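--- STAGE predict ---
source: upstream dedup step, 1 unique chain passed
mode: sequence only
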Amino acid sequence: SEEKGGFHNGRASSSLPLSSRGGNTVDKMGQKIQRLPQLLTNIHHDTKSAKASNDGGEKQTPTALESILTSIHHDTKSAKASDDGGEKQTPTALESPSKLKDWMAYHSTTYAPHANHMGRKMDAAYTLKAAQIALSLAKYLGGQFEQEQDIGVESRREDLPSISFEDIVVDNVIVTNVDNEAVLESTSSPSGATKNNGGVTTERRQVLALGMILYELFAQGTPPPTRLQQSLKSSGRILSFGTSLRISEQSEEEEEDDDDHRGASGGDRRKNKDDDDDDMDEADQQEESFVRKQRRRRCDEKGGEESVSKLLKLAGVPISICKLISDMLSNRDDTDIGGLFQCDKSVSCFADVIMDLEQMVDQPKDFLYDTIRLNAKPIVRNKLYCRQAELEQGIELAGRCAMDASSSVKQEVLMITGLSGSGKSSLVNELIVQLKSNGWESFHCKFDQIGRRQPLSTIASAFDSLFSSLLSTENTWGSGGSDKLGDMRTNLLKSFDEESFPILFHLMPNLRRVVSNDGNSIDMQQAEYVFDESAMISSKIRLHNLFYELLKAISDAPMLLFLDDLHWADAASLDLITFLIDEMGASIADDPIRGTNVFIIGTVRTNEVDNSSDLSEFLQKIRSCYNITVTDMALQDLSPADVNVMISEALCYSQRLTRSLAGTVHHKTEGNPFFVKEFLNDLTVENLLVYSFSERTWDWDEELIESRTISDGVAEILTRKLLRLTKDELSGLVMLSCFGSEVSLEVLALVRSSLGNLDIMNTLDCVAQARFVERTDEKYRFVHDMILHAAQGAVDENERMIIMKELLQALLPHGYSDDTILFIVVDLISRVGANRVHDSETRLLFAQLNLTAAKKATNTTDFASASTCVKCGISFLSVGHWEDSYRLSLELFSQSALVEWALGNTEQMMSSLEEVFNNANRFEDTLRAARVKLAYLRMTGNCLAEAFDYGFQVLEHLGESFPATPKNGIIVQEMLGTKQLVTGPLNESKLKSLPEMTDSTKKEAMAFLEQMLICSYQSQSIYFPLLACRMVRISVQYGWTKTSCVGLASLALSLVTVFSDFSEGYSLAKTSMSIAGSDKRVLCSIMTITYGMINIWKEPIQAILPQLKDVYNMSLKYGLIDTALSSGMFHAYRAFFTGSLLQPFSKEVALFMRNNSERHKRRLMHLCVLSLSNGISCLRGNSSGPQYVDEFITEEHLAEALRNKEFAACEAMFAIKMMCSFIFRRPDGIKPTARQYLELFERHGSASAQFVNIYRLFYGGLLSLHYYRESRDQFWLDRAAHAIQKMEVWTAESVWNFENKLLLLQAERHYAFGEMDRAAEKYMLAQESSKKHRFIHEEALTCELAAAFHEKAGNVQFVAELIVRAVNCYQTW
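--- STAGE serialize ---
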């Protein structure tokens, strides 16, 4: 093919026969072609005559035009049929490849044009196929031209085919695919490119030649006018400038005839430009520049090109094709002027041709066919522009979340940032559409800057809307076809109990309908949610856990949670979201809390991040969450090219024609999508962008648009748009803005009469038609937040205040019975402000309403909203309010102290407490505030001494006094007397039949005693048994409360620790559990005491570990943080000293530490578990952790714990320090510390920490015997004897837990006394016991010590075996 001068292309056949460019045409065809100029001249004269008579006489219509064109069409087809001897007929079928002429002949018959009321119309199928052919050919020629330009003429290869514009004719086009692909068959100059003056092939001449082909293609075989064909062939042309400043082709004779009439016109000036430029002054040059500019501006579709467009229109060609071909043929490659005077819209490059044709092929309805436009305004499409990469990234992240939990390592969170109007919500909505087609569900939380909603209502409403949607549809899960609602109902009933559902029903009414089926929720319907203020913090955590469990229960299929406008989220919502994200990545033990199948997407305005401390803290927290990957996606403004696509599709106008307008719009709007949309609409309103229905074109003046000043951006445009509304419509919109971004129809119905005679519903419906708001079945909402803010700024502050007061008066009567209305009312009250309300009764009413709202917000653990309501209520109190409104003042400040404590605002809390303590009339009125103060002191950690003093002061006022320094005899006597009251079968039965306590003072005393009991345990105080006994005695005398069982379990613990009465304590602990009832807070407290500190004396410790883990998880579920952390710490220490495998166990401890340090911040727990974590790292030899125990437990750490009376933490650190030092054979480094603290904790006796004292005695005894062998110091022997004596007592209670420890201590004692045979026997028994009872780490230690003993005793035959066994056990551990 290369030798024949053909092209070798992937889509072209190299075996096609070469044909000449012109072909063999019979004389008849030549005659028809010769007739074309005259026919076109007649058409031109007829048109001019019709125009001339338009004003003066009867208008003459060129009726001959269509008949002439029809004659041309029939003659041309006849010529085609008679070509090549007159034998060729229209093909009955097409082969691939085929010539374009054959393709046109075949399809012209198959898809013949038809006539309608508008005249001749081309068949739509033929039009689309022809557009596909045109696009393929344009891409082919454009690609060849770019290749030719890249290589260059000088360096052209011999084998590179070249295209000259003479080659681009219809006869050379081959349709390689009968539907849509075409190439050129051959060229006329295979040796090189045709030169054109400058020596290179000009792209514009090739585009002109392509225009000729497209003319004939879309005219279904009719060739272009003769003058255009001749203009392409001729090498020299003369240009004429008529009075209309149009460019047209003329013959040389016509040009000579016109010379006399033109004189010194533009034609002469242009012709002699080089001679005259030197004589032109500056003014003439400016005039010349202006003339050139006007000629370029006004030559669009004028002159010769006008006839081309009209001919194509009359042939039924769509207007878009007419424009393109006309603009391609208006392109002039005149070498004497270099195309300077081309029409502005002329097409001179393949890129523009391809751009137009791609739009026509991809979107034929809008850009190809002659669709009648009914609206003269731009219609910006509801689609994404320039966001495909972001969309694909979102789909990829969603795919990771939908993976099976076992294969998913991370949970994904996507945070999308961008300026207002950048399309954040549109991107997520498009992502939701695509994900829903793959079986996803989604729910949308839209936060609002204005309007304080019911606490957590935004998130709760999103869940509720999802349930409502599921109830109203019968869709199924994915392809499995299982019942979605049924599966969800099953999961919900498994996840929640009868105490949990009422809390959720309170927030999500539709959830009741979801779980109610066949009477399975009758009991739940009768239950009501009651908030327990004494467990306020627990209630918050419990509510968070309920939301998380709910999320897991409904996400069997992939779920997308869309958090829109997070920068406006309230603190309570951010707190809940943080918890949900944190829990997705959290896990504990072998039950990982992951795989929720939920993909969370949040949107944030870029300029709002730095303005919100809550948001900044939220973003920081979620990025530090364990097992969570946060992906940041920043949306940029659209580029000029993207804006051009957006405008082109809004106008249904070619991108080539809208390019200049898009550039101006982009300059004004900076590419913000929402701004672009509103700016376009504003241009049409101002008649700066006008659509012509007759010409089906858009007109605009770029200079006028560019000169417009928009100082306030899109807000200014929206404000002008609002001011065009009627007075009623604007009033309705302003009223709607007072509620925030949305408002329910029920609320609007209540305020229907607040604006006089205005029918608010009809008014908002009218506004909805203008796309300011949209209406659903349940509410009205603003289409965009920018419209909301514009509506708020459309009236002055005074007028807005009048509207808000009217709304307040209309809603006030309904705020007492409806929580939703109540929070709308208090929001309006806060925005009106106390300084605008002067009536004393109204001020008290508003203060009372805020107090009511604060209590309801507290009940739902939205402490931030409660704080806002309380502060607003206090602002309405007048001077002297403690005298005039004592009860209201007391409740407001007490509530303030409560919520500020919950929020951690210590300064504000103390201020409110002082207000109460200084102004209360009686002690009983301060009890609520006193509970807050005691809880604060107890939980602070380093204020335990102060907490003790304050707690005993309160108890003294309540009639429960305690000795300042209790003697051991008093403690023993109190315990013995109380034991007789509750032990034995008869007494157990009596406890179960006790009535409920009714004395309010004793109820208060029991509440304070429970807090003091926790304080005394944390500080290892000797008051612990006295407090437990007092709680039991009050319960026996005055009746039973829910905290009575806690006192009973604490008494059981005291019997174990003080009297070593393990059997009685074990029995009493079981009794307390049996009568605890269903109260989860009480039950978890009792289970923590029982499993953590009592059952170890009777049951195998390995069996207790799962129970402690269950208590930990249950306590977390119900928000019992203190109980959860206690049970978690007990589990951690028991598991560590029991020999749990360190690698998986270290992960559990790390998660537990994260929960405590990052979420709950309990100092005592943190100190204990931190020591444990460091001990694990030290034993495992982690390079990143401490290598020696002295690095993480120093003398200063122990001394500080003692100074703060944190005895439990001190004993825990000391036990770990002894263990690591002994295992690593570094006993000398701890000897001074051991001497000091072993004696100290031995004196401390019963008050030692029950979760660690066993191991403190065990490793203390081993160290003491080691020191005794070296020094023979009686001090160490006494310490060892004490440890052995305790182990003997404990082994009698539980052989499983203590036998191996006792045997090893006895072996070491025999070794210290030189009793080698007895020592060898005890070592062997200790090894067997350790292995039998599954203490692998103690088996390793026993083997190691036995090897050292046998080596010292000369029994070398045992040493190697014992060392190997020790190493294996250590490695397994």
